[in-house]
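User: quick one, sequence for these tokens?
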């Protein structure tokens, strides 16, 4: 079984159990349902380099990235450091994250928040909204085109935006691209964990202008971001390069300074 199938199986089990403990009605009662979501697309577009800075403690490809800092420390740092948006991994099994991390992030920033999760069911979209997310990630490799449309429609009804992630031309061709506010090209192959920025360069021209182009994973050098910007990308999803530093927010601030110099 490849990693994506394994993740999907774990998630389905997890969702079925969670629905028993926290039914949808409870989620709808969350005080955060009253909050007006912010536009991640607008926030990223307003900057020459819209950085989506990610909170990531560990990953399947790297056992420990940073376990020393609290979510609040990281997210406050990202906010002060000039991020355009913040991504919070909520998957526990593979990334050591949680929905509580999303809540804690919400409590300390006004920046748009992306719930970084393997979303398969409508329940998870409502869960994202109830815990303070402004946008959700939908991964084309995990979903049928009809599911993407349905989940994106639900996100829109709840006032959230959608970042649709693709990794190759086949996924771009089969996906309902009109459902997405932002289209992200993941430079990391989720089956092999190999990273190649050429993935983003080669797919840029195939992304419709209706969506904001985002490049994801393996980013760390200012020169690489300048080249990707020239290819049409306006959003840059970065985790490890900041998280592996003692002060991720300070690292982001220094990075943006070099980039904009
Ligand atoms: O830490 P990096 O290499 O900067 O990557 C961040 C982000 O792109 C990556 O965490 C990611 C992109 N798509 C995902 C889907 C699921 C889990 C994680 C991801």
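Assistant:
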């Amino acid at each position: 079984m490849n990693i994506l199938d394994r993740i999907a199986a774990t998630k389905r089990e997890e969702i079925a159990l969670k629905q028993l403990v926290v039914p949808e009605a409870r989620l709808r009662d969350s005080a955060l349902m009253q909050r007006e979501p912010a536009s991640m697309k607008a926030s990223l577009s307003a900057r020459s380099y819209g950085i989506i800075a990610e909170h990531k403690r560990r990953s399947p490809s790297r056992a420990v990235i940073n376990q020393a800092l609290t979510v609040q420390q990281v997210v406050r740092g990202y906010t002060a450091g000039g991020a355009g948006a913040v991504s919070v991994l909520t998957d526990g099994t593979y990334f050591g994250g949680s929905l509580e991390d999303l809540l804690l992030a919400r409590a300390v920033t006004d920046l748009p928040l992306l719930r970084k999760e393997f979303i398969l069911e409508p329940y998870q979209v409502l869960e994202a909204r109830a815990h303070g997310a402004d946008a959700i990630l939908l991964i084309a490799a995990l979903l049928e085109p009809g599911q993407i449309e349905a989940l994106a429609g639900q996100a829109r009804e709840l006032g959230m935006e959608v970042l649709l992630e693709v990794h190759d031309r086949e996924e771009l061709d089969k996906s309902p691209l009109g459902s997405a506010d932002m289209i992200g090209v993941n430079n990391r192959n989720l089956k092999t964990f190999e990273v190649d920025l050429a993935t983003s360069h080669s797919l840029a021209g195939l992304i419709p202008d209706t969506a904001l182009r985002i490049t994801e994973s393996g980013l760390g050098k200012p020169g690489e971001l300048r080249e990707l910007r020239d290819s049409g990308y306006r959003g840059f999803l970065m985790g490890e390069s900041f998280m592996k530093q003692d002060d991720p927010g300070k690292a982001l601030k220094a990075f943006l300074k070099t980039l904009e110099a």
